[in-house]
Amino acid sequence: MRQVKVETVISVPCEEIYDFVADLSRRPAFSDHYLKDYRLARANPVGKGAAARFLLDAPIFGERGELSITEADRPRRIVEEGRLGRLGRSRMVAVYDFVSQPGGSTRVELTTHTEPKTALDRFKHRRVHRWMGRQSETALERLRKIFEEPGGEEPARASVAGAEPGRAPRFGARVATARNSTATDG
What we know:
Blueprint: E1 4-10, H1 14-22, H2 28-31, E2 35-40, E3 51-56, E4 63-73, E5 77-84, E6 90-100, E7 106-115, H3 119-124, H4 128-148
Antiparallel strand pairs: 1-7, 2-3, 3-4, 4-5, 5-6, 6-7
């Protein structure tokens, strides 16, 4: 797929936007229109090493994917690398650049690029760059609205698949295990 680059200006300082985007648990707040079944792959969703899995809900060929933050240069840049498609054959890169503007606003640039591995993958990605550009523009517009037009409710968040934070053991606490009913006490 060709490289897709979109940008928007948000009237908030770089640090606030960077902190929001660097937290992968907050990604559904502005990207859930095309990233379905989004879940965290690691317990720590912030900064370098944070990872997530999702379904890229493309019109004809939806593909499973995963991404992780490989570079986090606060407050200037976030680089995410990942894999898409069958067996994770296709490589994906997303780069968020945050540029300070006069008056305390920030220009957010999102550049995405995929490298299909096989001829079938190249066929499937043939026209996806236009769709991806539209989805990325919508995502940045939704991100702008989160900061400039707060609605009062907390933006959507993702969690680690299968994790229930309220039931997780604390440091030093014992975890109750179910006893086998056929076992005899003795």
